[in-house]
Design brief:
By secondary structure, the protein is of the alpha+beta class. The chain has helices at 14-21, 50-61, 96-111, 135-145, and strands at 4-11, 30-32, 39-48, 68-73, 75-78, 86-90, 124-130, 149-155, 157-164, 171-179. α2 packs across α3 (96-111).
Length: 180
């Protein structure tokens, strides 16, 4: 299917992404995200054709939400045991505004004709992708930053983005912004 590789996300202020980039432990097997690549995915949609994308845009533009603050805290990995694949920054626990926004976006994507992601949603910001790095190598970094507090971020907009995969990492383009 031709189309765009799309996702819906929250962007982070430059002051926060700059601080997160500085956390890079510079370990072999850990590819740290650039500030431009850091976001919180609300919905990954995959390749979307033009007709579905147009319906999706209309549905997303109808979403209304109020601005809210999101705590950015704690560093961990996916999976939680075994060889790490992702190093993430968490968003605290139990943020009803974030989960409500996620549900509205899921409803909008479903109404556009896209298949829902049935896996449990674990909101996070991907800091790095890991390949062939043992958990014990990451343990000192994870211990040091497990309680890391990046402060509060005000959520004022949601973005529909396209993603172009390259050997150096994904390149993102904002296709639509929905403001609070």
């Amino acid at each position: 299917m031709r189309g765009k590789r799309l996702f819906v996300s929250l962007d982070f202020p430059e002051s926060i992404t700059a601080a997160l980039v500085r956390l890079d432990p510079h370990l072999r097997g850990v590819r740290w995200m650039t500030a431009e690549q850091m976001h919180l995915t609300l919905a990954f949609l995959g390749n979307v054709g033009p007709e579905i994308e147009e319906k999706l845009r209309i549905n997303l533009e109808s979403i209304r939400f109020r601005s809210f603050f999101l705590p950015l805290q704690g560093v961990g990995t996916f999976p939680g045991k075994g060889w790490p694949k992702i190093i993430w920054l968490g968003v605290g626990a139990g943020h009803p505004h974030l989960f409500q926004l996620h549900k509205r976006i899921a409803d909008a994507t479903l109404a556009a004709g896209l298949e829902p992601d049935l896996r449990p949603w674990h909101p996070h910001l991907t800091l790095a992708r890991c390949q062939d790095i043992a958990r014990q190598t990451l343990r000192p970094f994870l211990r040091r930053y497990s309680e890391f507090d990046a402060g509060l971020m005000q959520v004022t907009a949601v973005h529909l983005k396209s993603s172009l995969l390259t050997p150096a990492g994904s390149i993102y383009t904002t296709e639509l912004t929905i403001s609070a």
